[in-house]
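Input structure tokens:
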């Protein structure tokens, strides 16, 4: 059995997590304006800058690494407090349910918006779902 020694919240970790999430949001926003934007990105703006490309490169992997480190740091205490079944149930409820809802309800609209933005707006929402998510096109 793992003993929990993490009983109190550490405000610095909350602040670090907030800063890393802000970096991830900034990176995704900067991708629209980067010089070498991938052709599959949702919105490609004509006003492109090497500065945004540099920002994307710097922000691409570091924040996620820190977030995974923090999740791993707190996982043993959560596992010890809830047990294996409770831990998995909590993670499924907190992560799995929003993921399924996002894939089912949000992603089709984002894929359609992306297709329209990139000049491929001749498909209906149903055709976009069938083609992009079900692979029938």
């Amino acid at each position: 059995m793992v003993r929990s020694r993490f009983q109190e919240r550490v405000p610095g970790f909350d602040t670090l997590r907030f800063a890393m999430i802000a970096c991830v949001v900034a990176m995704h926003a900067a991708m629209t304006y980067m010089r070498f934007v991938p052709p599959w990105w949702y919105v490609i703006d004509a006003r492109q800058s090497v500065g945004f490309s540099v920002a994307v490169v710097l922000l691409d992997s570091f924040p996620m690494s820190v977030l995974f480190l923090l999740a791993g740091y707190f996982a043993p205490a959560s596992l010890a407090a809830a047990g294996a079944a409770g831990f998995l149930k909590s993670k499924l409820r907190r992560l799995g349910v929003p993921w399924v809802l996002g894939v089912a309800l949000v992603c089709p609209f984002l894929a359609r918006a992306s297709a329209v933005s990139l000049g491929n707006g001749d498909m209906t929402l149903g055709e976009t779902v069938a083609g992009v998510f079900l692979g029938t096109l």
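Residues 93 and 114 are 29 Å apart (CA to CA). The radius of gyration is 20 Å.
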